[in-house]
TrEMBL record:
Keywords: Flavoprotein, Membrane, Oxidoreductase, Transmembrane, Transmembrane helix. PANTHER family: D-AMINO ACID DEHYDROGENASE, SARCOSINE DEHYDROGENASE-RELATED. This is TIGR03364 family FAD-dependent oxidoreductase. Its cofactor is FAD. The chain crosses the membrane at residues 7-26. Residues 8-379 form the FAD dependent oxidoreductase domain. Belongs to the DadA oxidoreductase family. Pfam families: DAO.
Length: 385
C-alpha cells in the first residue's frame, strides 16, 4: 500500500481515457494515483478493433485529436512496445457513389496535409487480391494510420508509467464516493480507504449509476452495444486496417464530402444500417481475423434493456456481408463478443466540472482508441495551464 494519500491528480477508471490522462499528467511532473475497480480494466478500451484511424473522424477538432493521438502512440512506441503497427488503412468502395466520396475525401485530406492515395479498382485488387472483383470500385489508402492490440496496449502503457514515470496504481479498488472537502477532493473506496487529490478525473465508462449519478443526464448520454467476432487463424493476407462501403457511409469524416447528402441507399444497405452494421477487418499477429461490427443503443443507465445475448442474426448478417467483400480460406468463428461504450448525444464527448475539482470525462463513444491520447493531452494541458 502506498503511504502517500494525497496527490496532485487522482483518476478513477483504468481504461484508455484514464490511462492517458495519467500519462500526460505524469509527463508534466504531477503526482498521480490511478484507481481501477476490477482486477484489470476490461470494458470498451479492450473490446474493440484497435484501429487508430483519424480518417474516419469529423473534420474538425476530432480529426486533429486523431492525428495527435497517432503521434503520441508512435512516440511512445519508441520508448516501449505498446503494440503499435504502422500498417495504414484501406477504404474500399463498393459502388460509384462511394468511390465519389473517396475522391472527394482525398481532396479534403490533401487540403489538411494528410497523406492519402486513390486507387482504381484494378490497382486496389492488385494490391489486395483477396477482395472480390464484383465488390470493388476503387480504394483509398492512408499510409500513416496504425493498428494496436487493444488487449495489451493500455496494460503496457500503465506498466511503463509505474516503472518509469512514478504512477501509483490500485486495482480491485472501487471508489464509492467523491466530494470536495477542505478545498480539495476526497475519495472513499469500498475498502474504507481514503485518498485526497487536488484534482480528480472520473473516467469510469458506462458505469454512471454509482459515482455522482445526478451529473450524468440520460438525455445527454446513451450506451452503445457492439458485436464483433474473431475468425480462426489463417494465412496472413490482411496487411492493413480494412474499412468498407458501409463504413464510408457511416463515418463522420465523409459527411463533409459534397456528395454525401445525395447518396442513394439500397434496401439491402438499409437493413444492415438498421442494425448499425458496417464491416471492418483486421488480422492479428496470430493470423486470426477480427470482424465486425454492429451498433444498438439505449439511454444511459438502461443497459439491462440490452439483455445478455449476442445476437446470432446480427452475426450472420455481418458474415454474409463480409463474404460479399472478400475471400478467406477459413470463415470459422472462434469467438464472438459484445462491447459497450458510453456516447454523448449532444456533444462528441461528455465533460463536466463539479465543485471546481472533480472532472467527469466520459461518453467519447467509438472513437476512444483513435482520439483519446490527443484529447486527454489537451484536457490535461488546460487543467494545468
Amino acid at each position: 500500500m502506498y503511504k502517500n494519500r494525497k496527490y496532485d491528480l487522482v483518476i478513477v477508471g483504468g481504461g484508455i481515457i484514464g490511462t492517458y490522462c495519467a500519462y500526460h499528467a505524469l509527463r508534466r511532473g504531477k503526482s498521480v494515483l490511478l484507481l481501477e475497480k476490477d482486477a484489470q480494466p476490461y470494458e470498451a478500451s479492450f473490446r474493440n478493433f484497435g484501429q487508430a484511424v483519424p480518417s474516419g473522424q469529423a473534420l474538425d477538432s476530432w480529426f486533429d485529436y486523431g492525428r495527435k493521438s497517432l503521434k503520441i502512440y508512435k512516440d511512445l512506441q519508441e520508448e516501449v512496445d505498446i503494440s503499435v503497427v504502422k500498417n495504414g488503412s484501406w477504404y474500399v468502395a463498393s459502388d460509384d457513389q462511394e468511390m465519389t466520396l473517396l475522391e472527394e475525401m482525398a481532396q479534403l485530406f490533401k487540403d489538411r496535409d494528410y497523406t492519402s492515395r486513390l486507387y482504381t479498382a484494378t490497382e486496389t485488387l492488385e494490391i489486395n487480391p483477396h477482395f472480390k472483383k464484383d465488390y470493388v470500385k476503387g480504394g483509398l489508402f492512408i499510409p500513416e494510420e496504425a493498428s494496436l492490440n487493444p488487449l495489451v496496449m493500455v496494460h503496457r502503457v500503465r506498466e511503463f508509467m509505474i516503472k518509469h514515470l512514478g504512477l501509483h496504481y490500485h486495482n480491485l479498488c472501487p471508489v464509492i464516493s467523491v466530494e470536495k472537502k477542505r478545498g480539495i477532493a476526497m475519495l472513499t473506496t469500498s475498502k474504507k480507504q481514503t485518498f485526497w487529490g487536488d484534482q480528480v478525473i472520473l473516467a469510469n465508462g458506462r458505469d454512471t449509476q454509482f459515482l455522482l449519478p445526478e451529473h450524468y443526464p440520460s438525455a445527454e448520454l446513451k450506451i452503445s452495444k457492439l458485436q464483433m467476432m474473431r475468425l480462426a487463424p489463417q494465412k496472413k493476407i490482411l496487411k492493413s486496417n480494412i474499412l468498407t462501403g458501409l463504413t464510408i457511409r457511416r463515418y463522420d469524416s465523409f459527411k463533409s464530402c459534397p456528395s454525401f447528402s445525395k447518396i442513394y441507399t439500397s434496401s439491402e444497405q438499409k437493413q444492415l444500417q438498421a442494425k448499425g452494421i458496417h464491416i471492418l477487418f483486421k488480422q492479428a499477429d496470430d493470423g486470426s481475423i477480427i470482424l465486425g461490427d454492429s451498433h444498438e443503443y439505449v439511454p444511459a443507465g438502461e443497459q439491462a434493456n440490452f439483455g445478455f445475448e449476442v445476437s446470432s442474426e446480427i452475426n450472420e448478417m455481418m458474415l454474409a456481408e463480409a463474404k460479399r467483400i472478400t475471400s478467406l480460406e477459413n470463415w470459422t468463428v472462434d469467438s464472438t463478443w459484445a462491447g459497450f461504450y458510453l456516447q454523448g448525444t449532444q456533444s462528441e464527448v461528455f465533460t463536466k466540472v463539479v465543485d471546481d475539482v472533480i472532472h467527469i470525462i466520459n461518453g467519447i463513444g467509438g472513437k476512444g482508441m483513435t482520439t483519446s491520447p490527443g484529447f486527454t493531452a489537451e484536457y490535461i494541458q488546460k487543467l494545468y495551464s
